[in-house]
Amino acid sequence: MSQQIRVAVIGAGVMGEALIASLISSGIPADLVTISEKRSERCNELITTYGIKASDLAANVKDADAVLLVVKPQDMAGVLEEIRGSVNQKAVIISFAAGKRIEFISQHLGTKNPVIRVMPNTATIVGSGMAAISLGEGVQPQDKDFVIGFLAATGKVIEVPEELQDAVTATSGSGPAYFFRFVEAMVAGAQELGLSADDATTLTYQTIIGAAKLLETSGKSATTLRENVTSPNGTTAAALTSFENDEISTIVARAMKAARDRSQELA
Q: Start and end of every Pyrroline-5-carboxylate reductase dimerisation domain (predicted)?
């Protein structure tokens, strides 16, 4: 797919903006990216920041070679009905909505446009995201390359069968929130031990950042890194024993299953 592709971005939230930035970083000229968003102030903000254009929905999808649907799952049906009959028949449709299956999108559009389903996560906005794509019928190699190309500007990308997208949602899609909740708990725990809020926050944040850096750069597994810092009968071992007594693996697995189940309910 040529870098002269015309891209319609439907939705101007945080993820929509992150994807606009990644499109431009991947080589798509800003004047070929057009956004559709009901909030005029938000449109003006993105036009000023990125040099893109804005258009109403029908005109935007009519001219586009690729349509990025960056809307909430509960809004997807309404958006698809609104653009039904207006979409360029040769355009690739790329959905970023949790739970919404390729079949759902095709049925609501009433066309045979190729559809690619993507589950990104919030770290996309800082260029360290994790995305998984699934390909619908008729997706051409150049369509796949286009999507992988601009998503690579936001982090890492893998391809999975669509039936695993709900598991992806429960792992990387919702995963950052699990991490943030654990950080909240660590900060609170440090304060209960007598540390000030500022010191508890600094200690926790830098510890987490450093640990993530080790995981990324050391070439060692999380298991090996954990074992390396856990002396028998030491302080770390005491904390980890407490985690195991509270069945941390069961707690996490149950939470991820709840996220997976909710993703399936959104279909």
A: 162-266
List the chain domain ranges.
Answer: 7-164, 175-265
Per-residue pLDDT band for 116 (boundaries 50, 70, 90) equals very high
CA angle 167, 91, 171 (to 5 degrees): 10
- Give the total residue count for the chain: 267
157: Cβ contacts below 8 Å, ≥ 6 apart? 131, 132, 133, 148, 151
Over 90: is that where the pLDDT of 83 sits? yes
pLDDT at 267 over 90: no
> DSSP letter at 230?
-
Beta-bridge partners for 66:
7, 92
Q: Which CATH superfamily is domain 175-265 in?
A: ProC C-terminal domain-like (1.10.3730.10)
Is the CB of residue 65 less than 8 Å from the CB of residue 7? yes
* Cα distance between residue 92 and residue 167, in whole Å: 24
Class of domain 7-164: alpha beta
Model confidence at 4, in pLDDT bands (50, 70, 90)? Answer: confident
266 pLDDT band, cuts 50/70/90, is confident
